């Protein structure tokens, strides 16, 4: 009986962690859409696959796309420590409306951009998007071995194939496939494109996180979440030690006279 309970508790814990990792977006809290309603694709972070705690804002790579007035979404402390900063991709996606192929933007490659992308591809960079609180993952590019040479050609994926499954008026599953790799050469202009395919499913909204239990990317998310928790605990412990043990007479007298947490924080800050 106890082993059965343990076997059931692990998937529940994993789903709970995934829901904690998903950004809480007030504008999408009801998760219900009408036909042709806009569905926002949020870009989040990017970093080396082998080090999930090393993450950067998606636009730290020289992608073209969102304008300067793109909407930003910030989460709680855990999401900030996890490096999450959601920015509206401004990619046009509407509920139940297929897109065969559309242009996101045109990427003009100069020497600095080529170097930046090549370094990211060499380090096996992956990125994370969100749609209706559901994560999408993909790699920035790939290496193609060159014939009669020990070197490899750096290829940047230029097409995003987005597949969305829905049940009535709710999004159940999203999937992203990176396609159409192009070589990186100074002076070239690459068309970054996307397509959207909507399919129906019988999976209920309450079971939509189940599919992520088998995702290898999710293991990296759990590791990153664990690291963020450790950082928060370590920071809290250091603050406690500072306040509990480092109280010279001047600070003690000042604190006793003011008896204000705000003044104490102000004292440490300035």
TrEMBL record:
<dbReference type="Pfam" id="PF02990">
    <property type="entry name" value="EMP70"/>
</dbReference>
<keyword id="KW-0967">Endosome</keyword>
<keyword id="KW-0472">Membrane</keyword>
<keyword id="KW-1133">Transmembrane helix</keyword>
<dbReference type="GO" id="GO:0000139">
    <property type="term" value="C:Golgi membrane"/>
</dbReference>
<protein>
    <recommendedName>
        <fullName>Transmembrane 9 superfamily member</fullName>
    </recommendedName>
</protein>
<keyword id="KW-0333">Golgi apparatus</keyword>
<keyword id="KW-0812">Transmembrane</keyword>
<keyword id="KW-0732">Signal</keyword>
<feature type="signal peptide">
    <location>
        <begin position="1"/>
        <end position="26"/>
    </location>
</feature>
<dbReference type="InterPro" id="IPR004240">
    <property type="entry name" value="EMP70"/>
</dbReference>
<dbReference type="GO" id="GO:0072657">
    <property type="term" value="P:protein localization to membrane"/>
</dbReference>
<comment type="similarity">
    <text>Belongs to the nonaspanin (TM9SF) (TC 9.A.2) family.</text>
</comment>
<dbReference type="GO" id="GO:0010008">
    <property type="term" value="C:endosome membrane"/>
</dbReference>
């Amino acid at each position: 009986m106890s082993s059965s309970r343990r076997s059931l508790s692990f998937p529940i814990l994993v789903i709970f962690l995934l829901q904690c990792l998903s950004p809480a977006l007030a504008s999408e809290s009801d998760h219900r859409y009408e036909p042709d309603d806009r569905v926002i694709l949020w870009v989040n972070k990017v970093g080396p696959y082998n080090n999930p705690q090393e993450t950067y804002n998606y636009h730290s790579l020289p992608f073209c796309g969102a304008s300067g007035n793109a909407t930003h979404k910030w989460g709680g402390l855990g999401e900030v420590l996890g490096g999450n900063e959601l920015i509206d991709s401004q990619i046009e996606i509407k509920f139940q409306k297929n897109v065969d192929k559309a242009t996101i933007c045109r990427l003009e490659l100069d020497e600095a951009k080529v170097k930046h992308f090549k370094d990211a591809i060499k380090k096996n960079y992956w990125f994370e998007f969100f749609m209706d609180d559901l994560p999408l993952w993909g790699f920035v590019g790939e290496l193609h071995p060159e014939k009669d040479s020990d070197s490899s050609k750096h290829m940047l994926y230029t097409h995003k194939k987005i597949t969305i499954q829905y049940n009535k008026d709710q999004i159940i599953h999203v999937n992203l496939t990176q396609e159409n790799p192009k070589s990186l050469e100074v002076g070239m202009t690459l068309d970054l494109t996307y397509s959207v395919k909507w399919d129906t499913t019988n999976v209920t909204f309450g079971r939509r996180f189940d599919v992520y239990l088998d995702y290898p990317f999710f293991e990296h998310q759990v590791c990153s979440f664990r690291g963020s928790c450790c950082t928060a605990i370590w920071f809290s412990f250091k603050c406690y030690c500072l306040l509990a043990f480092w109280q010279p007479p001047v600070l003690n007298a000042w604190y006793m006279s003011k008896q204000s947490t705000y003044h104490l924080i102000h004292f440490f800050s300035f």
